[in-house]
Amino acid sequence: MAGEILSQNEIDALLSALSTGEMDADELKKEEEEKKVKVYDFKRALRFSKDQIRSLTRMHDNFARILTTFFAAQLRTYVQVEVVSTDQIPYEEFIRSIPNRTILNVFEVPPLDGRILMEVNPNVAYAMLDRLLGGRGESVNKVENLTEIETRIMSSMFDHAFENYREAWVNIVEIDPVATDFEVNPQFLQMVSPNETVVVISLNTTIGETTGMINICIPHVVLEPIIPKLSVHYWMQNPDKKERSPGEAENLDKRIKKASLPVIAELGQTSITIEEFLLISEGDIMSLNTTVGDALTIKVGNVPKFSAQPGRVNRKLAVQVLDYVKGGEDDDE
């Protein structure tokens, strides 16, 4: 066991105290031999290491960034979501820590067992609802009197938000979040036994001028099959070394080959005024910035890629590719 290193002055003071009788060497020895007992609360069992908690925090940092982008696009206002804490506590303690009336969204995450709970503070939920209905994002906490329309809008919004959860877990396991329940009273929701250890990730959420918490509660039973993957060693692995399903590269290659891209043969360019544009009629001639002998530019996905010359094939207009366009945008040649 590593001991504390004493300075020379402390050593001299200790020797002086022993020699003058202020300290008894036998008592020091007896104290050293006594067993040191560490208090352990079985009702608050710590079933996750600090390393695993850090991995969960890292995953939900990514989820917070995804939620920030999602809610900002949906609500069209300033949104900021960030992880403020990750704790492992008994389920009963978590239920006691949240409001008596709040927004509770329950999700299954197959192939993992169990369910995950996302609790949204009513202030935040109503600010979101107000924005969705065309308001300024003001919060009016009346969660006890949710109408059927408000319930439907809220549950739909949080269902779509939680669909992004799979992206945060993609480096650990591929999950398929599915909403199973929507509740406002925590006492009516019993996901696991009261003493079951859960991990609670608290996200501080700002919607316009309203601030509140979003808590994600993950029971131990959900994380148990993937605990070995919640380690720094696993996260630091080279992604290229991870196992890939058979035929994954082949399927990806097939999908890329079937992707469609617009191909445009550009004769030339010109610029005219709005007045000239409004006066255009059939038979008018417009001067381009190219001559008859110049090569055409072939654009793939709006990016210049080839030069070509015009012609006909079976009475249809066609172009013949002459060369690559050098130095063009995204040019890998």
TrEMBL record:
GO biological process entries: bacterial-type flagellum-dependent swarming motility; positive chemotaxis
Membrane spanning residue stretches: none
Primary localization class, coarse: other
Subcellular location: Bacterial flagellum basal body; Cell membrane
Membrane disposition: Peripheral membrane protein
Keywords: Bacterial flagellum, Cell membrane, Cell projection, Chemotaxis, Cilium, Flagellar rotation, Flagellum, Membrane
GO MF annotations in UniProt: cytoskeletal motor activity
Domain called Flagellar motor switch protein FliN-like C-terminal: residue spans: 255-324
GO terms for cellular component: bacterial-type flagellum basal body; plasma membrane
One Pfam family per UniProt: FliM
Gene3D superfamilies associated with the record: CheC-like (3.40.1550.10), SpoA-like (2.30.330.10)
Family: Belongs to the FliM family.
Protein name per its UniProtKB record: Flagellar motor switch protein FliM
Annotated organism of origin: Domibacillus iocasae
Lineage of the species this protein comes from: Bacteria, Bacillati, Bacillota, Bacilli, Bacillales
